[in-house]
Specification:
Length: about 120
């Protein structure tokens, strides 16, 4: 595992008036970055999804259902990503997280970054 991603999960608490207040929690995990296959990319595009990254975690228990990822690439660009699916590899503890760039549609507050 030679890369790092930041998994972002949002929890909610109530303030004194009863309003739900989002509270993002972030944590770093080690991973391996793999390429999305051409066939997977085009199949997903047919249903409006755009997978661009596959991150492989060494153990599926390192993932707690987060829906957002922050990733800094080798050129030091920060990417705000949305998890499109996960896949536990057969006969392995490894977990694939497939993610794509966020497009700005809905739930913007959930990333915790104000993107």
């Amino acid at each position: 595992m030679d890369d790092v991603i930041i998994l972002v999960k949002t929890t909610y608490t109530r303030d004194e008036e009863g309003n739900m207040i989002p509270s993002p929690a972030e944590r770093q995990v080690l991973c391996r970055n793999e390429s999305v296959s051409r066939s997977e990319y085009y199949q997903a595009a047919q249903v409006g999804m755009h997978p661009e990254y596959i991150f492989v975690l060494s153990h599926f228990m390192d993932y707690e259902g987060e829906k957002f990822i922050r990733y800094t690439d080798w050129m030091n660009r920060i990417h705000e990503l949305y998890v499109t699916r996960t896949y536990r590899r057969p006969n392995s503890t490894e977990l694939e997280i497939v993610a794509g760039e966020r497009t700005g549609h809905g739930n913007e507050h959930e990333s915790g970054s104000g993107a």
